[in-house]
């Protein structure tokens, strides 16, 4: 793909096919690759999303890529990175196509209540973050009913618009995550844009926790750590750091 990389990205590695850009970039990070590396695949055959779910990544139908950033921040301070990345992609969609996106906790980007994009973030000790992103672009028949694409949303008519959009996405993510380079507290209002975009807050939700337990309540806030705060009918406020959220109403 012929693009000019915006800061902080300095190198683009493009492959026709791979198992997973996320797994590949972990290898690059462990081998000492510098921060700012971008790995883009035309096709993934073993793409994965949150909770180890398969992510369909067919050739020529999406942007399938992973990003390497190194940060001096402690691991406990990195939980909001997936949320901030979701905000950055939503902003890129608005800037490029005028699309109004929402975000389902923690980081599913929705257009008209259907999933357009997903994010997966892995920490690779001691200081590397691998940010995996999938965005459906030219997909005419998504693998699930609750998915969509830029093509189906009439945002693009051909893949000629994809390179410029990719540049916009990279610039937006780079700007949103610029504070990763410094070891100091996040701004107090850093998650306010996420709260405004959230389709989860204010809804009654069923949350299936990693243990298998189902928690029902109202999603009332996002913690500074990125955790979802759920208020139950018993009056408890539970902070959810991982789980599958279904909006009941």
Automatic annotation (TrEMBL):
Give the source lineage, highest ranks first: unclassified sequences, metagenomes, ecological metagenomes
Where the record annotates domain BPL/LPL catalytic, the positions are 1-181
Q: Which residues form a coiled coil?
A: none
Keyword ATP-binding attributed: yes
**What name has this protein been given in UniProt?**
Unannotated protein
The record's listing under CDD domains reads: BPL
Q: Which GO terms describe its molecular function?
A: ATP binding; biotin--[biotin carboxyl-carrier protein] ligase activity
Q: From which organism does this entry originate?
A: freshwater metagenome
Q: List the SUPFAM superfamilies hit by this protein, alphabetically.
A: C-terminal domain of transcriptional repressors, Class II aaRS and biotin synthetases
User: Which cellular component terms (GO) are annotated to the entry?
Assistant: cytoplasm
**InterPro entries listed in its UniProt record:** aa-tRNA-synth_II/BPL/LPL (IPR045864), Biotin_CoA_COase_ligase (IPR004408), BPL_C (IPR003142), BPL_LPL_catalytic (IPR004143), Transcriptional_repressor_C (IPR008988)
- What are the record keywords, sorted? ATP-binding, Ligase, Nucleotide-binding
